[in-house]
Design goal:
Blueprint (H helix, E strand, L loop, with lengths): L18 E2 L8 H6 L12 E5 L2 H4 L12 H6 L17 H15 L3 E5 L2 H4 L10 H16 L3 E7 L5 H7 L6 H17 L5 E6 L1 H9 L24 H25 L9 E7 L2 E4 L4 H7 L1 E2 L2 H5 L4 H7 L8 H7 L5 E5 L3 E6 L17 E4 L1 E2 L2 E2 L2 E2 L6 E2 L2 H13 L5 E5 L13 H4 L2 H19 L4 E7 L18 E3 L6 E3 L1 H10 L6 H6 L3 H4 L14
Parallel strand pairs: 2-3, 2-17, 3-4, 4-5, 5-6, 6-9, 7-10, 9-16, 16-17
Antiparallel strand pairs: 1-8, 10-11, 12-13, 14-15, 18-19
Helix pairs in contact: 4-6, 8-10, 9-10, 15-17
This protein binds beta-D-fucopyranose.
Length: about 550
């Protein structure tokens, strides 16, 4: 890099939609943590919900006309998924959705976020017919939710896609995927749009592009050195191509919705549409402006401003695809709300002017080294998810940042959750006594409430997740659910966190202490021992 390079740049490791920015000192963390959060700390009409995704819970991988998808095929290859797990049966929500809707209802939430399995609705993408059994399944789920007074929040694409599209043209690496996605979205709008008012086009394009095409950990498992040792791929370029196609697919689907569905006012259609971003918060590693700059980049600009930020163009040069003037028009203002998935905060260290490990010194990583540790001290308490620490203040900071940068556009926190550390614990009853999960949600909610009090237009909060599920490459041993799922019977057993959430929502004030003392003994007896002394992976 030239010495006179402007001292600002994007952090590109989570690419386009990730939010990374500097924190100008934060005070008041203790004050928030001491406070016992209550539902009344949130504005009237604020929506509480719970979040899931199709592939992580449904199972029934070849039933009801569903075709093989990218995860079905990826899971077959030994070593790709921890313990050789797969989503073939998963927690069988496909057959148990009635029971699952009851559980959601019993929590007292007013919203449920789910996604549509692409290969269940369009087994061959736009090269085949719509599968009526697939449409019927989601129609039934939606009806059942509405009957219970629960608002469905629908993610159209959450990591899973028909293998057919991968085999035909390389899925997201090809611009053809934009047309396939728009077709899929249209089928969803047509079939569910009379009842679904909150749409999210794509879940975490930034995270998916990096995990699948830079690290090679998600299907199709493409990467190059030093990021990973895959047989094919180019980690410096492919994530950019994939992001570009995903952004355009999102923008085109949003335009279709706006032009042909949203405009048709109630009682049919007339909802709103957004995209889900993986929003990790970043703080400078050292008290040094260059680390602050490394942490100071948010990349939602293309969605709202119609092009990539100039800093990205500067560092990525011709590797960064261009938008045509027409595409820019599609992208500008293509969202009605931002759906924010927030779990943790990490440190960023500059790699332009300082030495960094291989990888972090690449443009695709924004020349930033990311870590959870400073001088041997973690940024927050570690969780069962690698690189994920408990840093409640990050919730306020991320929301505050998005508020400022995006003119206080409406936001929903569509994912926030805690991965248990009990993986190491021989006493499986600890999986049910998940008081740390309760503490996590209480603390993050307190900071969210504070951001709202300061004026952020946040309209809802969704816990990730309803029940322990197929956590992608970590399989079933990484648990974020409020319900434990028995590995043999697949019975759903409430954890303390489920009791806490229910109490919180019904304002009966069950606090953490009471919840911890609550008896779960009858449920504990139902749990069998599992070999669990291995760590998860993402
Ligand atoms: C998010 C994903 C979700 C789940 C959680 C733990 O990044 O959107 O599917 O895996 O992480």
């Amino acid at each position: 890099m030239e010495a006179n390079t402007p001292r600002f740049y994007f952090v590109f490791l989570s690419l386009l939609l990730s939010s990374r920015f500097l924190v100008e000192g934060f005070s008041g963390e203790e004050e928030e943590e001491e406070k016992d959060i209550k539902i009344t700390d949130f504005p009237h009409g604020f929506v509480f919900g719970v979040s899931t995704s199709a592939y992580q819970i449904e199972g029934a991988y070849l039933e009801g006309g569903k075709s093989l998808n990218n995860w079905d095929v990826f899971s077959r290859i030994q070593g790709n998924i921890k313990h050789g797990d797969n989503g073939y049966i998963s927690v069988d929500d496909y057959h148990r959705y009635l029971e699952d809707t009851e559980i959601v209802h019993s929590l007292g939430v007013k919203a449920y976020r789910l996604s549509i399995s692409w290969s269940r609705v369009l087994p061959e993408g736009r090269f085949g017919q719509v599968n009526p059994a697939g449409v019927m399944f989601y129609s039934n789920v939606i009806d059942k939710l509405l009957l219970k007074g629960i608002e469905p929040f629908l993610t159209i694409h959450h990591h899973d896609l028909p293998q057919e599209l991968e085999d035909r043209y390389g899925a997201w690496l090809s611009p053809l995927m934009q047309e396939d996605f728009v077709h899929f979205a249209e089928i969803c709008f047509k079939n569910f749009g009379d009842r679904v008012k909150y749409w999210m086009t794509i879940n975490e394009p930034n995270l998916f592009a990096n995990l699948a095409y830079m690290d090679g950990k998600y299907p199709p498992g493409r990467c190059s050195l030093p990021f990973g040792n895959c047989s094919v791929g180019n980690s410096d370029i492919e994530p950019l191509t994939v992001m570009h196609n995903m952004l355009l697919a999102h923008a085109k689907a949003a335009k279709l919705y706006r032009d042909h569905f949203q405009a048709i006012r109630l009682p049919k259609q007339g909802g709103s549409i957004g995209i889900v971003v993986s929003a990790t918060m970043f703080e400078p590693l050292r008290d040094d402006p260059i680390d602050q700059e490394a942490a100071n980049r948010a990349s939602l600009d293309p969605l709202l401003f119609g092009d990539y930020p100039p800093e990205m163009r500067h560092y990525l040069g011709s590797n960064l695809p261009c938008f045509s003037p027409e595409e820019t028009k599609y992208i500008e203002g293509s969202i009605d709300f931002i759906a924010v998935n927030h779990y943790t905060t990490l440190y960023a260290k500059d790699c332009l002017h300082s030495n960094c490990t291989a990888g972090a010194d690449h443009a695709i990583k924004g020349y930033a080294y990311i870590t959870g540790e400073r001088d041997g001290v973690f940024i927050g308490e570690p969780t069962g998810m690698p690189e994920c620490y408990v840093v409640p203040r990050g919730m306020e900071n991320i929301v505050d940042y998005l508020k400022k940068r995006y003119h206080n556009m409406p936001m929903f926190v569509t994912e926030n959750g805690y991965a248990s550390l009990e993986l190491q614990d021989a006493q499986m009853k600890n999986l049910l006594h998940d008081s740390k999960r309760i503490e996590f949600h209480k603390a993050y909610l307190a900071f969210l409430a504070r951001a709202i009090r300061k004026g952020a237009d946040v309209r809802g909060y969704f816990v990730w997740t309803l029940m322990d599920d197929f956590e992608w490459i970590s399989g079933y041993r990484m648990r974020l659910g409020m319900y434990y799922v028995h590995p043999q019977t697949l019975n759903r057993i409430p954890k303390l966190s489920a009791q806490w959430y229910e109490g919180f929502l019904s304002s009966n004030g069950l606090n953490n202490k009471e919840a911890t003392n609550a008896s779960l003994l009858k449920d504990e007896n139902a749990i069998v021992s599992e070999p669990v002394n291995e760590t998860a992976e993402i």
